[in-house]
Amino acid sequence: MGLLMVLFALSLSIIPFSASVSDNEVIHDLELSHTNPRTNLETQLLALNPFYQCDIYPRVCRAKNGVAPDCCKKKCVNVDTDRLNCGYCGKKCTSNEGCCKQKCVNMLTDRLNCGFCGMKCKYNESCCRGKCKNTYVDKRNCGVCQNKCKDGETCDYGMCNYA
């Protein structure tokens, strides 16, 4: 057990002298897959040490199960889905938008990301308040979102009380 602790301490003291990557550089798994000189054990030990910040050691982010592989302002984030760093560090989505595949989208109205990223509405549906609705027959969204038919009326072909 004592030998294991000595090896652990020794590996942590060697890591800061290894090659480093420039500050605030966004690191993706594909970019480093062939150039990573560190072993898996070294990278995991780096992630366990709270004193190693990703702006100094960007590979720390990749060691945390790949959930947040990018480093932005000393924090591990995922620029594919992070609203405050959408596509690149510092790009913020507005309050009514989410970040899907590095693009800010309004998930309340976007037919390709309705309610959440990747939820596609069918060809005859519209995204109304984050839910796919068929505006040709839905009496609460008749013709367009939020157009309610009166009591007793039906929605046909996108019109209330058609015929």
From TrEMBL:
<comment type="similarity">
    <text>Belongs to the STIG1 family.</text>
</comment>
<keyword id="KW-0732">Signal</keyword>
<dbReference type="Pfam" id="PF04885">
    <property type="entry name" value="Stig1"/>
</dbReference>
<dbReference type="InterPro" id="IPR006969">
    <property type="entry name" value="Stig-like"/>
</dbReference>
<protein>
    <submittedName>
        <fullName>Stigma-specific protein Stig1</fullName>
    </submittedName>
</protein>
<feature type="signal peptide">
    <location>
        <begin position="1"/>
        <end position="20"/>
    </location>
</feature>
